[in-house]
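To: structure subgroup
Subject: Chain for Friday's discussion

All,

I'm putting the inputs and outputs inline so they're searchable in the archive.
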Amino acid sequence: MKKFNSSMFDSIKTALADSESSVSTANNILRFQKGNIYTLRFLPNMQAPEESFYHYYTVGWESFATGQYIYAVSPTSVGERDPILEARFKLYKQGSDADKEKIKNVKRAEKWLANVYVINDPVNPENNGTNMMMRYGKQVDKIVRRAIDGEDSGEFGARVFDLSSDGCNFKVDIEEQGGFPTYVSSRFIGGGKDNDLNLNEKQIEEIYGNVFDLKNVFSIKSFEELEKMFSEHYLCEDGATKDEPRNEASAKSEKPAPAKEAKEEADPTVKALLAGMED
């Protein structure tokens, strides 16, 4: 047996620090509530502009073993195989009618993550004047793409990322439709009193220089870890019971959007990751 040494101890300390850092980062994802309008300004990654948005996929379902909602960032986000999605495809194609009905519970959702400067958070005003992250889905993505490189780019374009009075704000408008949140009324605004953020050059430089590294906010489970997750919580083959609930989602994983898909039931250890836009 190996003796415990200083190198091992350093590894433990590093792992603890990394874990604490990931939780802290997740806490910087904005929490949105229905019936409110949030005012934000998108922030570019000045060091790596191509990483100003992080595009990823999640997979999740309500565990058939514990009743908890379990979820993870899918490896397909980085072009790798996902055993859960492969099993879902196989059951859709080759399974019995019962198999096909059950596998419908396993949902795949498409998401984006972006850096933003908070101008007005009506629910948590302590966020005002700070850098945060915004998590969003397809509804908002269409609005963002249209403003940056679509039919609205002539009016907005690069101004989307401009912190000066020439920039444009993003109004996140969360309404309710059919019992689910909708973001179709969200919009960019290129003028008005809110556009002048009263920031000097030094403040603007500091804000641009303190964006989050989006690609490292969420971890991606290994192929084997996802197989184990599917085995335990879908096939119920590994002894997970309702009396001994087990949260299989990493503290850096995220749950897919509930809109017409699933009801959000967050484990306390990952609630921070469920904060954000879901559409």
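Points worth raising on Friday:
The chain has a mean pLDDT of 83.
The chain is about 25% helix and 20% strand.

D.
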